[in-house]
Design brief:
single chain; 394 residues; alpha+beta; Naphthalene 1,2-dioxygenase Alpha Subunit, Chain A, domain 1; Rieske Iron-sulfur Protein; 2 domains; seven-stranded antiparallel β-sheet; 9 helices; 27% strand; binds FE2/S2 (inorganic) cluster; binds fe (ii) ion
Length: 394
Amino acid sequence: MISGYEPPALPETHYLDNRIFTDAAIFAQEQKDIYERVWLFICHESELAAPGDFRTASVAGKPVVLVRGTDGVIRAFYNVCRHRAAPVVREEAGNATEFQCFYHLWTYGLDGACTGITKPGGYDAVQLDRSKLGLIPVRCDSIAGLVFVCLSEETEPLEDYIGPIIDSVREPLGTASLSVFHYNKAELGANWKLWQDNNSERYHSLLHFINRKTQPWVIAKTSPMKLRLFDNGHSGYWSDADATVTYDAGGYKDASVGTLPGMRDNEMRVINIFPDLMINIRANVVRLDRMVPIAPGKTLVEWRGLGLTDVPEAVEKDRLRHHNMFWGPAGRNLGEDVIAVEAQWASMATDVVRYSILAREEDLNPTDDANVRAYYQEWGRRMGRAPHAPLNSG
Ligand code: FES
Ligand SMILES: [Fe+2]
């Protein structure tokens, strides 16, 4: 009798045990062994443009606040009061000259220093030292305008962690003034890895009505765009040749108004940074996805649309329309992906079919599974678990 628990007769790298997406112990370990150890994208630096601009975020389940100081430096701290551990900043984003904890009103400067203790005389007897009670700092750094934090002191510097893949997007992201023109977030009923997987895996372009008409790797048997694999589980695809997406065929006339520096009209470049950042550039817009794992089957995803800051209003309108028709919450592409991964996770969680097949080999054509395999191999390396047999010891 055919069993859904029979491992496929494939090399071990070419299939996954689906319990990496559903097992609660694996989910908890990921927070410690991945999310607490790597550099994680938080926001674009234009979202912290002025001194005092701040933004809060959940990082490996811990509350963090990022703020631009009066010296122009963006810093990050755990958003937890040193008095009795209440959250200090309770808004998602804003501008402040200082932070005041709402519970007993202790205050902190934008540099994290504890600047005020209410009714301080009560601590005279014990000589409480305010200078030692600043907010706990978190490593924070930027690359090409993207702001990252890292909870571990041992992890390599951001530039080394990201590595040379960033060179492919330095010009469009890092040489002109960009700002966020679209933002939305939603909780998906799926494991966080499935969203990054979907953002990396091009074989499912067949799902998308629009991609079947517009994407070079679907229209042609092979595509001049190739997958590119890098250290630390990062990957991407772009073309040095003249490979463009035929947006016109999908009804997106003039989809390239306001093209970013270094990009060709209708060019597409995608890079996927391990574990949870996608940078997807479509000539004039950049889509950034960030994931916050909540439970094995629940993930908060944030979507940002970035574009040139100084464009005429007509270009801005056109760009927003194109962005949202394709990638907005009710757009043609994004909504189909959400339906796919939520249905996939729910079906996976029944444990009827235990294994997923990642066995396409196509000489790094975008529908090759090589990038997705590399992603899960990196996951396995960091977790000390084989993705094809994660619950087997030894
Ligand atoms: S917990 Fe913050 S002031 Fe008391
Ligand atoms: Fe998709």
